[in-house]
Automatic annotation (TrEMBL):
<protein>
    <submittedName>
        <fullName>Integral membrane protein</fullName>
    </submittedName>
</protein>
<keyword id="KW-1003">Cell membrane</keyword>
<keyword id="KW-0812">Transmembrane</keyword>
<feature type="domain" description="DUF3817">
    <location>
        <begin position="17"/>
        <end position="126"/>
    </location>
</feature>
<feature type="transmembrane region" description="Helical">
    <location>
        <begin position="67"/>
        <end position="89"/>
    </location>
</feature>
<keyword id="KW-0472">Membrane</keyword>
<feature type="transmembrane region" description="Helical">
    <location>
        <begin position="101"/>
        <end position="120"/>
    </location>
</feature>
<feature type="transmembrane region" description="Helical">
    <location>
        <begin position="20"/>
        <end position="40"/>
    </location>
</feature>
<dbReference type="Pfam" id="PF12823">
    <property type="entry name" value="DUF3817"/>
</dbReference>
<keyword id="KW-1133">Transmembrane helix</keyword>
<dbReference type="InterPro" id="IPR023845">
    <property type="entry name" value="DUF3817_TM"/>
</dbReference>
<dbReference type="GO" id="GO:0005886">
    <property type="term" value="C:plasma membrane"/>
</dbReference>
Length: 149
């Protein structure tokens, strides 16, 4: 028999779900930016994004020639650190919902496979909200009383 979340944890689950949703959207957006940056840098295009350099406020410069703030490197670093936050939000929701470990791994992949975090965020939110509503309705329903003879 699988373990089920406790009713007293439902407020914490709602908070964990909201945290996961925000982290999922931010991580997915940063991952898409990172993919675009990698396509610009590691293809024959060979460009990086620079902030505040001699070519203007925000400019694409040839790879390796940045002299100001390298936005391409910044996107890489920010995504990496925010992925850790995403994993924490995943772990928190996973542990409160008492899901199998494979589910944790699938959700964790949302931060490294482009677009997956957006699909998972919608699906997980829908599932968790439906589960919580069902369990709360069951708990609120009065117990049937058996007639005795």
């Amino acid at each position: 028999m699988a373990l089920a979340p406790k009713l007293k944890d439902f407020p914490r689950i709602r908070g964990a779900l909201k945290f996961y949703q925000v982290a999922s959207i931010i991580t997915g957006t940063l991952l898409l930016l990172l993919c675009a940056e990698m396509l610009l840098k590691y293809t024959p295009i060979g460009l990086e994004l620079e902030l505040g350099g001699p070519r203007g406020f925000l400019a694409f410069v040839p790879e390796g020639t940045t002299v100001a703030v390298n936005i391409s490197l910044g996107i890489l670093i920010v995504h990496g650190w925010f992925y850790v936050v995403y994993l924490f939000s995943d772990f928190r929701l996973w542990s409160l919902m008492r899901w199998p470990f494979l589910r944790f791994i699938v959700i964790a992949l949302g931060g490294v496979i482009p677009f997956l975090s957006f699909f998972l965020e919608a699906r997980i939110a829908r599932e968790v909200k439906a589960y919580l509503a069902t369990r709360e309705a069951e708990a609120a329903a009065p117990e049937p009383v058996e007639a005795s003879n």
